[in-house]
UniProtKB/TrEMBL annotation:
Biased composition (Basic residues): 216-227
Reaction catalysed by this enzyme: N-(hexadecanoyl)-sphing-4-enine-1-phosphate(in) = N-(hexadecanoyl)-sphing-4-enine-1-phosphate(out); N-(9Z-octadecenoyl)-sphing-4-enine-1-phosphate(in) = N-(9Z-octadecenoyl)-sphing-4-enine-1-phosphate(out)
Keywords: Cell membrane, Cytoplasm, Endosome, Golgi apparatus, Lipid transport, Lipid-binding, Membrane, Nucleus, Transport
Any GO BP annotation: negative regulation of interleukin-1 beta production
Recorded superkingdom: Eukaryota
Biased composition (Basic and acidic residues): 307-340
Name of the featured protein: Ceramide-1-phosphate transfer protein
One GO molecular-function entry: ceramide 1-phosphate transfer activity
Cell location: Cell membrane; Cytoplasm, Cytosol; Endosome membrane; Golgi apparatus, trans-Golgi network membrane
Similarity field: Belongs to the GLTP family.
Length: 437
């Protein structure tokens, strides 16, 4: 209900979410989502399909929490342990546990990333910012890669029905614009912390496996898994290969400082750790299969990666690909890893960490020029445009940036950082004029 929504309640719930051991309490996590859904409902029936899905997921978790095994569902950590120990998690809806707590929470966890990005855009927005653009940029950088074409289209249309920024602030019902911004500034670190701790939930013993590789095969526009391609070479591939290995051009402008600590919080809890790294569970089986098909990957495997690949024994890979039971590390992988993988290259977790310090990008300018430049994850899309301008000696105004991997994502808010947009090392970005056909 519109009247009952309170941004303060959202904040309070996410504050209460973390217990003394920095574990995420499901009860408050659920309540936080309930508040958010009640807000979304007040925006109109165009959001009903989203609301229905969210309510359904919230209900599944609530049923577990209040059910006979409820004691195991008090925290995300205890739930993960319980469900994995008891093999209660399945990858697909057709499995014997199609609606496990883990699977359900993962969906909401991804949505929390969307919320985090959207609220941050909203907090730093200016009078002429559009809620629909902020919402869709955040969506493209998070949930979109997990949704099939139809959902992405429907969601995109729903975003167009969002009220303008001023009305949106009013509907939030939390005082003046300044007060809303202040409240968002308080809520965001809490949401980020809950997100990060959930993301980090995974048994420590998985550390030993971090040298293994991930490949996620993005879904086609029709939501089907794409065939494994060896022969096809698109313009994007061409651009990728043409620039591989990328020469390390430094940026022509000073890099931005590293991300604020509040957005990069580490869980102090000893264990479990790194569990809810975003992933597409339905792709996890594909991942396992992909491991044994690495040699067919259409993208060139980078030298350092090849080295690590050799280190991982083929026997281990065999075992992985034949494993039918869900494994935490296969199941919950961060969006960043997913995004790296959907860029077509195979990377190890430790390489993912290394690449956080540098992002080598191939850029295609509006006039078709191809450039390679080095950035930091904290650089903004505007920095990317500025670098392209410097290098090409041309001015690019009123542009947007598109990713070239599938699903293509388009960002018109150039204040977003590469990391927020999920743009990772060795991606290809296309700069286009907004009014281009
Ligand atoms: C301070 C408050 C301001 C912001 C308020 C935002 C309120 C948002 C409230 C709820 C968000 C909805 C969360 C949706 C969870 C989606 C989970 C999901 O990915 N489900 C898909 C997969 O499920 P399975 O089939 O595998 O079980 C499902 O296919 C998705 C269906 C619907 C599309 C969901 C799109 C979500 C877009 C983000 C929400 C935008 C709301 C805009 C309101 C400002």
């Amino acid at each position: 209900m519109a009247d009952s929504f309170s941004l303060q309640n959202v904040l309070d719930n996410f504050k209460s979410c973390l217990n003394d051991h920095k574990e995420v309490c499901l009860k408050y996590y659920i309540s936080g989502w309930r508040e958010l859904v009640s807000f979304m409902n007040s925006l109109g029936s165009v959001f009903a399909f989203i609301s229905k899905d969210a309510v359904n997921k919230i209900q599944i978790l609530e049923n577990f929490l209040t059910g006979e095994n409820g004691t195991h569902y008090v925290t995300v950590q205890s739930m993960v342990k319980y469900e994995l120990d008891n093999e209660l998690v399945d990858l697909t809806k057709r499995g014997s546990h199609p609606e496990s707590g883990c699977r359900t929470l993962l969906r909401l966890h991804r949505a929390l990333r969307w919320l985090q990005l959207f609220l941050e855009s909203l907090r730093t927005s200016t009078e002429d910012s559009k809620t629909s653009v902020m919402c869709s940029d955040a969506y493209n950088a998070s949930l979109a890669q997990h949704h099939p074409w139809l959902i992405r289209k429907a969601t995109g249309m729903a975003f167009c029905a969002l009220p303008g920024r001023d009305t949106f602030f009013e509907v939030l019902n939390a005082g003046s614009h300044e007060e809303v911004v202040t409240l968002l500034g308080e809520a965001l670190p809490l949401i980020s912390e809950v997100y990060q701790i959930t993301e980090d939930v995974s048994p420590r013993q998985n550390k030993a496996e971090e040298g293994n590789m991930h490949v996620i095969r993005p879904k086609s526009a029709k939501g089907r898994t794409r065939p494994k391609v060896t022969e096809a070479c698109t313009a994007d591939d061409e651009l990728l290969h043409e620039n591989c290995p990328f020469p390390p051009y430094p940026p022509s402008h000073p890099p931005r400082p590293p991300p604020t600590p509040s957005h990069r919080l580490n869980s102090p809890s000893p264990s479990p750790r790194a569990f809810f790294r975003h992933s597409n569970p339905s792709s996890a089986v594909e991942n396992a299969l992909d491991i044994s098909l690495l040699s067919l990957n259409k993208y060139k495997v980078l030298p350092s990666i090849e080295k690590r690949s050799e280190e991982a024994s083929s026997a281990d890979m065999e075992e992985k690909s034949s494993r039918s039971r869900l494994h935490t590390r296969d199941f919950f992988r961060s969006d960043q890893e997913t995004e790296r993988a959907s860029g077509g290259t195979v990377r190890t977790t430790s390489q993912c960490q290394e690449s956080e310090t540098e992002v080598l990008l191939a850029l295609r300018t509006p006039c078709g020029q191809r450039l390679t430049c080095q950035f930091r994850p904290t650089d903004t899309l505007q920095d990317v445009v500025a670098t392209a301008e410097d290098k090409s000696g041309k001015r690019y105004e009123h542009v947007l940036i598109e990713t070239m991997e599938f699903p293509r994502r388009s960002f018109s808010n150039l204040n977003m950082t590469l990391s927020q947009c999920g743009v990772v090392n060795k991606s290809v970005l296309c700069i286009s004029f907004k009014d281009a056909p």
